[in-house]
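User: Can you recover a sequence for this backbone? Please restate the input before giving your answer.

Assistant: Of course. Working from this structure:
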């Protein structure tokens, strides 16, 4: 599947700069709703960040445009054959520019590199743009969850 980027992005290690930007982005009411982010305290976010390097069940990178942090993408709950994709563009001026497709490709490629055979995402039923993006990549609706959420899954083929 080929997608043409409108805006060039690159990924970097998820560092303190990205941690601070994530705190800001995930406390924006609109982004919080779209990402299904629960209430969190800065101390618990910092503790999560301190433990990140030791986790084998987590892959996360910052998404940058030139020298500007604009989003985050990753895979969590990584098991032997499965993992949960997540991501968000925190800088709203970049919404609708095709960056989500680039971010999806990055995570799917990483999932394949990790040897996963499937990936899934938990998406709000009102997040139509995310559902549309997932369908473009071949994700299928798997089930409805409580709280206005769905699971969409992609079976991975080898590269």
């Amino acid at each position: 599947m080929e997608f043409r980027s409108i805006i060039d992005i690159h990924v970097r290690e998820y560092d303190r700069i990205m941690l601070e930007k994530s705190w800001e982005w995930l406390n924006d009411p609109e982004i919080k709703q779209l990402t299904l982010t629960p209430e969190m305290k800065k101390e618990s976010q910092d503790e999560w960040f301190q433990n990140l390097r030791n986790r084998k069940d987590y892959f996360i990178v910052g998404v940058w445009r030139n020298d500007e942090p604009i989003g985050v993408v990753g895979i969590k709950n990584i098991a032997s054959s499965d993992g949960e994709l997540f991501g968000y563009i925190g800088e709203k001026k970049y919404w609708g520019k095709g960056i989500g497709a680039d971010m999806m490709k990055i995570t799917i490629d990483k999932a394949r590199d990790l040897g996963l055979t499937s990936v899934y995402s938990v998406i709000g039923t009102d997040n139509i743009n995310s559902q549309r993006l997932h369908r473009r990549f071949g994700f299928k609706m798997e089930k409805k969850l409580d709280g206005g959420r769905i699971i969409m899954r992609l079976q991975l083929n080898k590269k």
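That completes the design. The first strand starts at residue 10 and ends at 13.
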